[in-house]
Specification:
The complex is a heterodimer of chains A (about 170) and B (about 70). Helices cover about 70% and strands about 5% of the residues of chain A. With about 170 residues, chain A is mainly alpha-helical. Chain B is globular, with a radius of gyration of 12 Å. The relative contact order of chain B is 0.18. The chains are: A mainly alpha (about 170), B alpha+beta (about 70). Strand 1 of chain A pairs antiparallel with strand 1 of chain B, so a sheet runs across the interface.
Chain lengths: ~170, ~70
């Protein structure tokens, strides 16, 4: 499946896109302006990576794919740039700056980040609950049906009738 | 012709920002990044009112190098 996709990519690259310009815009909304700034920063970063890949003799498609994957985390980005020695065009500080800006405005990242945060929070709460549960034996309740009813006691018939009417 | 920051809406209905552009041997080259999908990058040349993506080859290699130098000038 991956090989098929790679073939399609290679074919597309051979043909090359031919795209008519429909409009040119240089005044835009604040949101679009942010997207534009982000795209320029990513473009500057990617241009250095692409050139480095070319000069290092790496496969450019692989380099681009790695670049896109690298942008999903700063750690991955760091290890990716460590591949280029010496880094010809992009310093790691500059790359980090671009990545920070990329992360700041990238919705996809925010979504992933929120999901990750929620998963971590859930995991942490579960662990805390388990810890509390284990440390306090008195809170342990046998929730099997029979034992539940066995544990209910009434001091008088009056209370019993009240309990039954609830 | 274009300047950095111009947004071009192309026939694939995507909006690309001009990150770099230069002229070489009478040909206008552009380096574009999709503003909604930054992994969609396009090195192309202008032919009339069309942007033609550069295929793999020496021309693309040269353009990649020039763009990188333009963008990473000290």
């Amino acid at each position: 499946m991956e090989q098929d996709y790679a073939k399609v990519l290679v074919e597309q690259k051979k043909i090359g896109r031919r795209l008519k310009i429909q409009s040119i815009e240089n005044q835009m909304s604040e949101e679009k302006s942010k997207k534009k700034t982000n795209a320029i920063l990513t473009g500057i970063l990617a241009a250095g990576v692409i050139a480095s890949a070319k000069l290092s003799g790496l496969d450019i498609k692989q380099a681009l794919e790695t670049e896109v994957q690298a942008l999903t985390s700063l750690k991955a980005l760091g290890s990716y740039f460590a591949m280029f020695t010496p880094v010809t065009y992009v310093t790691s500080a500059y790359a980090a700056l671009c990545a920070v800006n990329y992360f700041k405005h990238n919705k996809k990242y925010n979504k992933l980040s929120n999901e990750l945060y929620e998963a971590e929070l859930e995991d942490r709460l579960m662990k805390e609950a388990e810890k509390d549960f284990e440390s306090d034996d008195s809170t342990q309740i046998d929730v099997t049906k029979d034992s539940y009813y066995d544990n209910i006691t009434f001091d008088s018939e009056d209370e019993l009738s009240k309990g039954m009417s609830r | 012709m274009f300047k950095q920051g111009d947004i071009l809406k192309l026939a694939d209905n995507n909006e690309y920002v001009v990150v770099d552009q230069f002229q070489m041997s009478g040909v206008n080259y552009v380096y574009l990044v999709d503003i909604n999908d930054n992994s969609n990058i396009l090195y192309g040349k202008l032919e009339g009112d069309e942007v033609v993506e550069l295929p793999d080859g020496s021309e693309l290699d040269q353009v990649i190098k020039i763009v990188s130098e333009n963008l990473h000038k000290a």
